[in-house]
Amino acid sequence: METSIFDNGYQRRSNLLRCLALCLICLLLNVLGVRLASALGTSLYLDNVGTILSAVLGGPLAGIAVGYLSNLINSVSDPVTAYYASVTVLIALLASYFGKRDAFRRFPHILLPIFTMALAGGAWALC
Fold first, then answer.
1. Distance of alpha carbon 3 from its chain centroid, rounded?
2. 47 Cβ neighbours under 8 A, 6+ residues apart
3. Which of 12, 13, 89, 99 sits between 20 and 30 A of 126, alpha carbons compared?
4. Distance between CA 46 and CA 115 in Å, rounded?
5. Which residues 6+ apart lie within 8 Å of 54 measured at CB?
């Protein structure tokens, strides 16, 4: 059975739509995480949950796009968050790296990426 040249284009469009839907959901997750943390008055910021999820499932470009856009959206209400866009990009790259190595599959293996991202994000933010 021959395959049509249109099969490949349909598959690419389908993958692109899935990736865009993932990015929009993760972007919403990031923005709602920041709003929830500020509404509760906690110092626990949940603005990288969607970034990590999109980087693991969609790759580094999806993670970078979600993280950077969420920082730009959140900078409307709090301009200081725009300065942490580079930290979010670093966290997206690390999450994608560890995601490709299946570091998020089991609980003991999750500790290394968490510690690495926290340490790298904290050190980068201090610079």
1. 36
2. 30, 33, 34, 37, 70, 71, 74, 81, 88
3. 99
4. 16
5. 22, 23, 26, 62, 63, 65, 66, 67, 92
Distance (Å, rounded) from C-alpha 17 to C-alpha 89?
23
Distance CA 65, CA 25 (A): 12
Q: Average of pLDDT values for 9-34?
A: 89
Q: Which two tokens stand for residue 31?
A: 């923005």
Q: pTM value? A: 0.86
Domain span at 72: 5-126
Q: Evaluate if residue 4 carries a pLDDT over 50.
A: no
State the total domains in the chain: 1
Nearest to 60 by CA among 19, 24, 97: 97
